[in-house]
Request: fold
Amino acid sequence: MGLLFYTIFLKLYPIGIRITSLWNDKALLWVKGRKKFPSFDSSDEKNKTIWMHCASLGEFEQGRPLIEKIRKEYPGYIIVITFFSPSGYEIQKKISGADHIFYLPADSALNAKKFIELINPKLVLWVKYEYWYYYLHELKKKNIPTLLISGSFRKDQPFFKWYGNFWKKMLDCFTYYFLQNEDSKILLENIGIKNVTVSGDTRFDRVITIAENFDDVPLIKEFCGNNKVIVAGSTWEDDEAELVHYAKTNAHIKFIIAPHEVDKENLRDVKKEFVNSILYSEWILNVKRQTSNVKSETPSHDSPFTFHGNCLIIDNIGMLSRLYKYADITYVGGGFGYDGLHNILEAAVYGKPVIFGPEFEKNFEAQELIECGGGITIENALELEKTLTHLFSNADELEKRSIAAKNYVYSKAGATKKIMEFIQENRLLTN
Reply:
């Protein structure tokens, strides 16, 4: 019965996406990206291939430390990365760390057989979640080592329900599990899965690498000046509604806001909401024009391009993880929506207190960050304003929370090393 419903889902999902693509750019990219089956022609490459699958951009960042480590220690292998979502593929399709980046063809017995035979992987890395029945069973059938990395499970998932036998069959296809936390291990062991290790989350390794190799973002320092700075990352409409009043009534504080969605319509709405704002692309252009005026000895203090507001809206994807460095206090979005909280580690690693909404049950690190003092959860705009006012008025507490946030992240490093040791000890790859 489970397979029947799954097959129906596989038939209906592409139809729904095609309909949605008539007005949704992201859905249109999904459709266009799957018009052609991936091409992988070199017979030499088929002999030594590693395949990593990621649902989207966040999962790619999670798997990236391991791929970079493998690339360094096993340079003879070809790296293939697949994405389900356009938000991952479109941003990372030109990354130098992979030899091939594809959209994962839709799950079916034929596509799974064709794709796996095409790339012929020696090792498969499945990041965190997203379980595709036919792909996983084809990998098991061919006896290809398949590792789930940074896995995280919750008791409300179908694997652990009375009707979960079909879903459990997909879990049985993995060679080994590297899990984020002990709760996930207990859940899997309760359904008979023992080939597990609590290695931690590779995201900790990733954000530490970013922080320790920090590159300045052009002209952000100039925008911040000597002011107090709040960086709000991956925000949705509900998050922005909590922030907007404080931004309007505290003109002396600089706000850098990076919306989760950067399509033109959403950016227009955010800019309208934050009245004293400018887009990052506009800010860069304006500063360049003013600089050009100065060089040509044209007075710039009355330039029509001068910006006197306090809100900078980031209209691109890719720089957020560096922007948190400029903050005194950070806010991470998603905590007021169904999908849940976004990546708080990117902010905490710089030693910045992290504020977020109440929906974080899927993020064990949020609860741990609260417990150590580096994280603060709020229920509404009033609580947010009280929290911000209190922290800015109490330098000692702000510093204490900042130190706690950084120490927490560094205390959780090492997941990548544990997975690499397993790969080496079990000779899953050879030089």
Observations:
- The radius of gyration is 23 Å.
- The mean pLDDT is 91.
- The chain has 19 helices and 14 strands.
